[in-house]
Design a protein that fits this description.
With 99 residues, the protein is mostly helical. 62% of the residues lie in helices and 0% in strands. The protein folds into two domains: 37 residues, no CATH class; 48 residues, no CATH class. The relative contact order is 0.10.
Length: 99
């Protein structure tokens, strides 16, 4: 994937995150005409909160545990890669091969 393609994917992901947060905050799910909305935010919200806390704690832990600047930056990039939808290695997040 080129740098431009990666940047576009990151911007698209960021936009979709904010759209999803707005829908969640205003309780306006994207339901097609004739569809039925099923509420699951009560079950998902604690998991998402723990995921966000764990992700932040992991980043702080890396900075305290790894004293060298370059390896720390590499670990930061590898730590954030799945959040941006980037595959680390030859298998993507969803298990599909990356070309």
């Amino acid at each position: 994937m080129s740098v431009l393609g990666l940047a576009k994917a990151a911007v698209r992901l960021e936009w979709n995150i904010y759209v999803s947060l707005a829908r969640w905050a205003f309780r306006r799910p994207a339901v097609p005409a004739g569809g039925t909305a099923l509420g699951y935010a009560r079950m998902v919200t604690p998991v998402l909160a723990l995921w966000i806390f764990g992700s932040a704690a992991e980043t702080v832990a890396i900075h305290f545990i790894v004293p060298w600047e370059i390896p720390r930056l590499v670990l930061d990039v590898l730590d954030r890669a799945p959040d941006l939808g980037v595959a680390v290695g030859d298998v993507g997040i969803d298990g599909c091969s990356v070309e």
